[in-house]
Specification:
This is Major Facilitator Superfamily protein. The chain has 436 residues and is mostly helical. The chain has 18 helices and no strands.
Length: 436
């Protein structure tokens, strides 16, 4: 109890806005597993078509960068707290639209996906800026370690509870044995949680980014390297959101099993991740980054070699630890680069958050495209079996790129004694109304 009290006091030692943001993300963390896992499972169950699941995900990823753009203009007139809460609420509305559809058609799935993409765009654009503005390089390991601790635990608890609730509907005849009603009840709970998190975020004293240009086409070379890292990260994001649901529904068969698999090793990894965030320093990020990517590749290899329930189990365990390790290291690296390059180029920091989303989009589109290409030209089974391994191997290039980025940050950090010179890219770029 003393240790828990000390950890709580340590949490209270951080700034008010940082604590409010973490608590808001804690509540919303109960929503994300439902969106990530069970929406894909719902589409899979009602269409029996893995390509329809990927089409839904492509619609989501198409809506995100468009909403990042709209959000940039809205920030000049609307409080960032309201936009952030709007994104959370829209995710619940999108799920409600999906559940209200009778027969899932490509058009219906696409519309629901676009709405979910818009909710993610509002959520992530504003969340990333708030995380950047309320933290500094010395406390970002702790921030992302604690946030990942929240997310990892909810990815254990929520799938178990919801998975067995949905499966129990069919086994014990709740609601007439109609699983659709069970999904609708889950959606109602999601919407309630988004309301609570939306109220909490308004307790913070957050400031909007300055009113200035945020769209640029030329950047410092260090940011271009960071974009390569974003593309490689997006490559896994494009497929990893729906892959677990598709693999479990194909090889295991029940939503309850989906929840159980998520629970294996989850609690242990959550506390390990908190310990890593609590004790590590910026110099340890590349090690954490490497371990996370290595685990993802190892999980993809297990799935490819076995391609059965055991292979899915091993992949999910690797993913459960590898994905958050990757995030703990990636986002502080991203913010360190934004701090460095924005000081060199004298630009609004939101410009880099906005621009990076297009790097993620290219990677996500490529990841989804790889799956569709393999499924159409070879088979669905081949795509489910080998796409993860291919992506995992390609992603290992991120280690080399991240080393270059961190070295570039050390070499390119503006001197406190000398005035910063504008980059040649800034001088060359063409100015157009509303753009930099």
């Amino acid at each position: 109890m003393n240790k828990l009290r000390n950890e709580f006091l340590h949490f209270l030692s951080y700034p008010h806005n940082m604590r409010i943001l973490l608590l808001t993300n804690l509540i919303y963390a109960f929503v994300l597993p439902v969106i990530d896992i069970f929406v894909g499972a719902y589409v899979m169950r009602n269409t029996q078509d893995v390509k329809m699941v990927v089409i839904y995900q492509l619609a989501v990823y198409t809506g995100i960068p468009f909403t990042f753009l709209v959000n940039g203009f809205l920030l000049q007139h609307i409080s960032i707290k309201r936009l952030y809460s709007a994104g959370m609420l829209l995710s619940g509305i999108s799920m409600a639209v999906m559940m209200s559809l009778g027969k899932l058609s490509m058009t219906g799935v696409g519309v629901a996906g676009l709405m979910m993409g818009m909710s993610f765009g509002l959520f992530w654009a504003n969340r990333d800026f708030l995380a950047l503005s309320t933290t500094n390089d010395s406390n970002r390991n702790y921030y992302y370690g604690l946030e990942t601790f929240f997310y990892t635990n909810t990815y254990v608890v929520v799938p178990v509870f919801i998975g067995w609730f949905i499966e129990g509907t069919g086994l014990w005849g709740w609601f007439g044995g109609d699983r659709v009603i069970a999904y609708q009840i889950v959606t109602a709970m999601v919407f309630l949680l988004t309301i609570v998190s939306s109220i909490l975020i308004h307790q913070g004293r957050f400031e909007n980014p300055p009113k200035s240009d945020f769209i640029y086409f030329r950047f410092h070379w260090l940011w271009n390297q960071m974009q390569v890292l974003a593309i490689l990260k997006g490559l896994a994001q494009g497929y990893i959101v729906t892959a677990p649901a598709m693999l479990v529904m194909l090889l295991v068969g029940q939503e309850g099993a989906l929840g159980t698999i998520q629970a294996i090793g989850g609690i242990l990894s959550a506390f390990l991740l908190y310990f890593i965030g609590r004790t590590t320093k910026p110099k340890h990020r590349i090690i954490i980054f490497t371990v996370g990517l290595g685990l993802f590749a190892l999980g993809g290899l297990a799935n490819a070699l076995l391609f059965n329930a055991t292979g899915v189990l091993l992949f999910m365990v690797c993913l459960l630890l590898g994905r958050p390790l990757h995030d703990i290291a990636y986002f502080p690296i991203q913010m360190q680069v934004i701090d460095t390059v924005s000081a060199i180029e004298h630009r609004n920091k939101f410009a880099y958050i906005f621009n990076q989303e297009f790097g993620f989009f290219i990677g996500r589109f490529t990841g989804c495209g790889l799956f569709i290409l393999l499924a159409n030209n070879i088979s669905d089974t081949f795509a489910l079996r080998y796409a993860l391994l291919i992506i995992g191997i390609v992603q290992l290039l991120s280690i080399w790129v991240a080393n270059r980025v961190l070295r570039g940050c050390r070499e390119s950090a503006p001197s406190k004694e000398a005035p910063v010179q504008q980059s040649s890219d800034m001088i060359l770029e063409k100015q157009v109304p509303g753009l930099g």
